Amino acid sequence: MNRFDGPVAVLGLGTMGSGLAARLLDQGVQTKVWNRTAERTAPLVEAGAVAAARPVEAVAGTSAAICTVADADALDAVLNGPGGVLTEAPYPGVLVCAGTVGPEDVARVAGQTRQLLDVGMLGNREHARGGELRLFVGGSQEAFSTGRPLLELLGKEVVYLGAPGSGMRMKLLLNLLMGIEVQALAEAAELGSAMGLDRQQVLGTIAGSGFASPVMAFKSRRLAAGTFDKPDFRLRLMAKDLQLALDASTAAGVRLPLVAAAADTHLSATEQGYGDEDCAAVVRAVGAAAAAPQPV
To answer: Most buried by CB count within 10 Å: which residue of 13, 136, 214, 233?
Structure first.
C-alpha cells in the first residue's frame, strides 16, 4: 500500500466526518476541517487538526478533500456557495464525495472537477474512527489510482465499481436494505406486543434467530431499550436515502413496492418530529399507524 501523506480536508463533521477526521489524525495525516457550526471542530483541533472558517480555506494546499455533508443541497453549498471549494479556482486534488446523494448529483459535480470519487461508506462512527469501513467507489480510473492510498487508510475494504455515480448507486442499495430491515423488525416487535407477547422476548428471539441480519440484531437493542438519541444514523437521512432509491427505481423503470412503503413510513416519522433520532425510531410511526382508527 502506498502511503498517503496529505494534507487532507474534511468538510462536514457529523457522525461520519468526525470519525474520518479522527482516523486521519491518528494515522499522522495533516488534517484540515470545516463545519457549518464551528464548535464541532473543537475536539479535532485539540487532537491536532487545523480548523478553517470557509470550505475554500479548508482545501487550500490539500491533496484531497472529503465532503461528508448530509444531502445534495448541502454538497452544492459546500462546493458552490459563498466560500465554496470551487468558487475561486478549480480544485487540483482528489475530491471525495462521501455523503449519500443521488447519482445525478455526482454527475453534476463530475462536470466541475477533474478528479472526483463518489464513495459509499458502509459502517458506523466506530468503524470510521478505527479504519474499519467498507468503501464502494465510483470515479475515473485515474482519480481512483490517485485516491486509493487515502481510502485504504480509511477502510478495511476498498472496492472500485467503475464510472462516476457507481459508489452512490451501491450505497443506495445498501441503505435500501437497511431501511426495510429495520422497519420489518419494528413491525414485528409492534405486532408481537399487540398480540400479548413480551416485547423484550420478541426482540431477543428475532435477534438470535437465523432470520436476523447483523443490522437487525444491532438495532434490536435500541428498540428493546426504546432509546433513540445519540443516533448512529438519523431517521431523516434514511428517509432521504429511501426516496433517492425510489427516484432511481422510477428512472430505471423498476417497481419496488417495499421501498415505496418504507419511504412512506420514514417520511411519516420525520413529519412527526423524529427525524433527528436514530433510524430505529421508525417504530414510532409504525406504532402510530397501528394504533390509528381504521376506516369503516
So the answer is: 13
